[in-house]
Design goal:
Blueprint lengths: L4 H11 L7 H18 L2 H17 L5 H18 L3 H20 L4 H22 L3 H17 L3 H17 L3 H20 L8 H12 L5 H13 L3 H22 L2 H15 L7 H15 L6 H16 L7 H20 L2 H16 L4 H21 L4 H20 L10 H24 L3 H15 L14 H11 L13
Length: 502
């Protein structure tokens, strides 16, 4: 009969009490204490486990002590994260990385080396999640590439490698670099899928489908063929998940071709998936959001479609937890849907609610560029409300929102070394700031303040000059729109008057 975890710890404590105890026993005692901690959760057990692991590592540098110490340090880092102490967690993860490096150097065989490397990479990924420094991701990818060169592309290594490359792609400010990371991720995940046995880890199909979506138009045919094969023999729930990916593919094809048939296909896929996705799961709410996005893409929009989009988003938001990061974007999408319906029906209740939703979405946005974009939408809704609700004071509220958008953009690009600012973020900052200034001019014009409007348009035109040479912006308001409004207001009486900040 096997001893209980507590009995195992008691026996190993006795065995390691002697000064000349076998270092392997110290490592086993540390592992037993770690297992007991998972059962009882006493922090003192982790400290004791780390002590045994360190003693084992000191006395037998090529033994299992380093690996056990790294595992304990990783668990302690996780506890620090749960205690809202990221600084301590980062220190512990740095020590865990050092211990894993020593353990990898001492690995007795290839399977052990692969296992330890994967554990080390997971610790690095956790480090990245805390400090956002993608150096940890690059380091992890380098380790996985080295292991692949040495031991071949095993299923576990290929899987983690592919996932890490997708994470790195999401952090890149260089579109070409991001595409390269995604293409390499597709290769790794395809290798992992090829290593699956029948019925093993079907979730990996979804990861590969997502990677193929991220890889862009060059992989659309491959993705379509992959989804067709998988849908043929999938269970109802698995089919539902795959159909969501098929809907995303149809949306991507619509963006390329503008063929409305792709929107109809996407809507059909989502409707079928909603029938089999669990009502209380995050996949169901995400599918409702996707359905609303599809319905709102129709050009010109129809009242029936906007109504269905509003209903879908209401259900989606009701099922979204208050602390879910997706909630703010879903509120913003509901605001857009309500505005679209207002423009079709003239229902002022929709306009009021749209303004409220967009303001909430802006207030709860953490990322400065996202906050700036939502403030622009909120300000535009206020301009619409000034006329639609006969509330001229809304124009001043709109100007305030646009000024806040400029401040948020400045916050996002507050880098002392301008040369160190990623080019894509610089362009994004120029576009958002110029649009905020242009819309400020629009609000001043609506309020019959031509001098202030002229000053705002002038600043917008100046801001547009910060775009890279040859770059065109087509979505309104664009550079030509600001130039046209500025020209239209030239000659307005009083332009020489000092107007201050528009």
């Amino acid at each position: 009969m096997f001893p209980s975890p507590l009995q195992a710890v008691r026996l190993l404590r006795v065995a390691t009490a002697r000064q000349d105890a076998d270092p392997v026993l110290d490592a086993e005692c540390a592992g037993a204490l770690l297992h007991l901690w998972h059962v009882h959760g006493a922090p003192a057990l982790l400290a004791e486990a780390l002590g045994h692991a360190r003693r084992s590592a000191r006395r037998a540098p090529t033994g299992p002590g380093h690996a056990t110490a790294a595992a304990v340090l990783g668990v302690q880092a996780g506890e620090a994260v749960r205690d809202a102490d990221p600084a301590t967690a980062l220190r512990l993860l740095a020590r865990a990385d050092t211990a894993y490096a020593a353990a990898c150097r001492a690995a007795a065989d290839t399977p052990t080396l692969c296992r330890l490397t994967l554990n080390r990479v997971r610790a690095l990924e956790m480090r990245w999640s805390l400090d956002g420094d993608d150096t940890a991701l690059h380091k992890g990818i380098g380790m996985l590439e080295a292991v692949t060169d040495f031991a071949g592309a095993t299923y576990d290594v290929a899987l983690v490698h592919g996932r890490l490359l997708r994470r790195l792609a999401a952090t890149s400010d260089d579109p070409a670099e991001a595409r390269d990371h995604v293409a390499r991720s597709v290769h790794c995940l395809t290798t992992a899928v090829a290593g699956l046995r029948p019925g093993q880890v079907p979730e990996l199909d979804l990861e590969l489908a997502d990677a193929l979506l991220d890889a862009g138009p060059d992989h659309h045919e491959e993705l379509h063929a992959f989804l067709t094969r998988r849908l043929a023999d999938a269970s109802a729930v698995r089919q539902a998940h795959l159909l969501v990916r098929a809907a995303h593919l149809s949306l991507a094809l619509h963006r390329e071709t503008r063929d409305r048939q792709h929107l109809a296909t996407a809507e059909e896929h989502i409707t079928r998936s909603l029938a089999d996705l669990p009502d209380d799961g995050p996949e169901h709410t995400a599918a409702l959001e996707l359905l609303a996005s599809v319905l709102l893409r129709a050009e010109p929009p129809a009242a029936q479609d906007t109504g269905r989009a509003v209903s879908a988003l209401r259900a989606c938001i009701r099922a979204t937890p208050h602390d879910d990061p997706a909630l703010a974007e879903r509120r913003a999408l509901l605001g857009r849907a309500l505005l679209a319906r207002y423009h079709l029906t003239g229902d002022r209740i929709d306009l009021r609610e749209a303004e409220h939703c967009l303001r909430l979405a802006a207030d709860t946005a953490d990322e400065p560029f996202t906050r700036a974009s939502r403030l622009l939408e909120c300000g535009q809704a206020r301009i619409t409300a000034a006329a639609g609700l006969n509330r001229p004071a809304r124009l001043d509220d709109a100007v305030a929102a646009f000024r806040a958008a400029v401040r948020a953009t400045q916050e996002a690009t507050d880098v002392s070394d301008v040369a160190a600012r990623p080019p894509r973020r610089t362009v994004q900052a120029v576009v958002l700031t110029a649009r905020a200034l242009h819309l400020t001019g629009t609000a001043h014009e609506a309020a019959q303040r031509p001098v202030a409007a002229h000053a705002a348009y002038r600043r917008a035109v100046q801001e547009w000059t910060g775009l890279p040479a040859g770059m065109e912006v087509t979505a309104a308001p664009a550079p030509r729109d600001s130039a046209q409004r500025l020209a239209a207001l030239d000659g307005t009486p009083g332009l020489t008057t000092t107007t201050g900040d528009p």
